[in-house]
Structure formats: C-alpha cells, structure tokens
Amino acid sequence: MAGLILTALPQSAPAAPVTASVAAKGETVPVGTAAADAADDPAIWHDPRRPARSLIVATDKKAGLYLYGLDGKVRDFSPDGRLNNVDLVDMGWRGVIVVASDRNDEAAARLRLYQLDTRRTKLRPLGTISGGAGEAYGVCLMRVGAGVHAFSVLKDGTVTQVAISLRGLAPRGRIVRQLKLATQTEGCVVDPRSRTLYVGEEDRGIWAFDARAGGAVTGRLVAAVDGAQLVADVEGLALAPAGRHGGWLIASSQGDNAYALYRLPGLEPAGRFRIAAGKLGSTEETDGIAFHPGRFGRRYPRGLLVVQDGNNAPAAQNFKLVSWSDVLQVVR
Tens digits of per-residue pLDDT, 77-87? Predict the structure, then answer.
C-alpha cells in the first residue's frame, strides 16, 4: 500500500497591523552633544498640584543628565559623563529620587543617584553605588517600603537587582539577585501593581520577570519580535497604567520608527503608531521612552509620553512630547 503523503496547504501571511500617526505637541531643547547619537532616555516627574510645573529628566549619553520643563527649556544640567538610561521614583517625604545608569567605566556598571529638587528645579547629587560587573545600559526602579530597588540592565543581558537604602548621609546598595537574558538588552520598566519587571531583549522581544527579590529568576517571552507588531531593535519600554490591572505596555519598535502597544494584563497586541512630521518633526530610531498618567495641562489632558528622537537634523538629538489622548484616539 502506498504511503500517505501529506501536503501542507499554503497559508496566507497574517495581515500587517495598521500603524496610526500622531504629532508631537512639544519638544525639548537639543542635547549639547552635536552630530552624534547622544540623547537617549527620559523620565517624568508629575506635579499633581501644578501640572504645568512638571519636569523631565533625560540623558545625553556622551555628557550627562538634563532637567527640562514642559516648555522644553533646560532647567539644570549635571555634567557627569556617560549616563545612558534614567528613571525616577517619588519617595514622599524623602523626595524624588533619580537614578541613572553610569557607563563611564565599561567594566564596572554604576548607578548614579540624585535627589530632584522640584521647587528649585535642580538635581542634587547623592552619590554612586555598584550596578554589577559589566557595561551599564538600562535602568528602572521600583519602590519597596522605605527603599528603592533598581534593576541595572547590562549590555550583555545581565540584569542586576540592587536594593538601595536611602537612610544615612549617603545611599547604600546591596545586590540581591541577578537575572540573565541571552543577548543584548537595555530598556526595562516595572509594573508596581503586579510586581512585574519587563525587559527588552533587542533582537528577540520583551520578557516578563517576577520583580520581587525572592521571586523566580526565570522569565517568559511575552512579546516576540515578529517584524510586524514589533520590529527589532526593541528599545525603550514604558507603562501606561489604567485601573488595578489594565492599561498598556509601550515599546519602541526602533526598526521601523514606530511604537507598539500591548494591552495589560494579558499583553495582547493593541495597536501601534508613529510620530509623524507635524510642526515639530517626526521621530526616528527612538531609544528611550517614558510615560506618566494624569493631567499635564491643556496640551496633555490624559497623560504625557516622552520619546527620544534619533534624527532631529539639522539640530542635535532631542526629546519629543506627545499627548496620550492623541494616541488613544488613533489606536482604538
């Protein structure tokens, strides 16, 4: 009896997701390093009482750390060299703590800490602590009681979790565990509601880990690079929370100059968009991104998204400000 031959029927490729367009409503003064890949990563402090006084902290990875107002003008600058990524957390009476990944020594990652003086709009240096052995790249923060846990993402795929104590004259850090991905990583963000850490492996996708110090060290790939919804490199990650469990995870899909949305908590693809050329220009090759919910004045009534612009010619790179309400109108 002749053997049965099974022939696979041709399957049509999945339809490419629609990529919507929005325009930026603000931008920062360009970073000081011209003609170079220099601007990299932002973080946002929201002033709930006077939203127009909210602030943006952002890195020039060749020179130091900027502090901008929502008008895009420079409020302060700390010339601390090669600071790659940045995040901040409001610690109540202890103040707003800013942490930047310091790669001045590529063999020994450091975390450089500041207190953000929101009244005087100044960055006050607090010192540095170890971020692990290797080249510092990404960083994201999670408040844990009276302290902070920093996730120091190294270029080789190692993620070092550092417990930071803010008691005493200078901050102290203690490495509590390490996570590992196979290839180059950078962007990360923590969802404090579920204690979930999301890390971008540039060529593979987005991984989820238990962010608790005693949690499992194995992660799961929750959003793969597929060339459609998410195009390598995976760069900055940001969280747009809604309610107790919902909202969106936002990723910089750098390979096609777009931003991919995933609906929380299940991480289903939920649209994508680009920042098109309006009055302030489009964005390309975005590295870091940041989001903060809430009202930031009339331009940003439902939240603020800040993204790095990798091609702001003829000026140096800068950061663009986008109204979240504009994004929600085009991706829903």
Answer: 999 999 999 99
